[in-house]
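Colleagues,

For the teaching module next term, I've prepared a clean inverse folding example: a structure given as tokens, and then the sequence designed for it. I'd like students to try predicting residues themselves before seeing the answer, so please don't circulate the second half yet.
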């Protein structure tokens, strides 16, 4: 019994660190195995910056939420004032446009612009392209299943590769009144280290699940912008943090 309890506590601590490190990998863009050391370096930088900010702010009164809007990239959202903004002011660029993290829970919100290309350019110069444009167009009825799968693969390559996370699609739906916009729900499973023996006597890895909710839309200029909100499953299921996460998600506006 004592050994089981110790193992559970060890796994809890490991899962907590993985949640935070996963969030840092997302916001820092560390997508290669060699980036693991860089995560710890980024962790120190983010924490020190946050402590310095909070010390300077002192007893200043801050609003509960802070809005962010980009007229260039046609998106807006509101996040709790306690979250740390890691990336912003990247309007009109490719890649990560905006990112923020809640250091307490490991919650992350990310805004990304993908570069779609015609098939010929996608094959000849893949470094210039993130997605290829089907003949019927991105997110068309004919290709939506494949396009959503590719978006989730891109999400894993960008945000989860460092910690070997794998994301599976739970569902996706078209946004009301939009022919090129979708909403995605998915779950990312990340190994936390160590194993346990299941009821069948088989060793299984300890893992942490993160629930992911995403918006994506093909904009008038042909690019695809997506917004991803990701947090540990426990955060979504708790009354207070769950309400806060749903409020963040409902604040997201992404237009073509």
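(Answer key — instructors only)
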């Amino acid at each position: 019994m004592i050994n089981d309890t110790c193992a559970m506590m060890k796994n809890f601590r490991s899962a907590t660190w993985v949640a935070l490190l996963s969030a840092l990998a997302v916001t820092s863009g560390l997508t290669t195995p060699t980036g693991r050391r860089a995560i710890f370096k980024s962790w120190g930088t983010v924490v020190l910056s946050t402590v310095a900010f909070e010390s300077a702010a002192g007893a200043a009164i801050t609003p509960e939420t802070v809005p962010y809007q980009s007229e260039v990239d046609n998106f807006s959202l509101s996040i709790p004032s306690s979250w740390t903004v890691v990336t912003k002011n990247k309007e009109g660029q490719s890649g990560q446009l905006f990112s923020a993290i809640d250091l307490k829970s490991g919650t992350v919100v990310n805004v990304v612009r993908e570069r779609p290309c015609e098939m010929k350019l996608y094959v000849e110069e893949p470094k210039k392209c993130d997605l290829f444009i089907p003949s019927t167009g991105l997110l068309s009825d004919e290709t939506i299943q494949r396009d959503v799968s590719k978006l989730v693969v891109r999400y894993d390559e960008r945000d989860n590769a460092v910690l070997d996370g794998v994301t599976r699609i739970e569902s996706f739906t078209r946004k009301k009144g939009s022919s090129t916009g979708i909403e995605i729900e998915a779950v990312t499973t990340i190994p936390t280290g160590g194993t346990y023996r299941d009821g069948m006597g088989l060793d299984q890895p300890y893992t942490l699940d993160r629930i992911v909710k995403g918006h994506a839309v093909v904009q008038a200029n042909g690019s695809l912008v997506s917004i991803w909100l990701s947090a540990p499953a426990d955060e979504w299921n708790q009354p207070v943090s769950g309400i806060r996460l749903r409020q963040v998600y409902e604040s997201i506006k992404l237009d073509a």
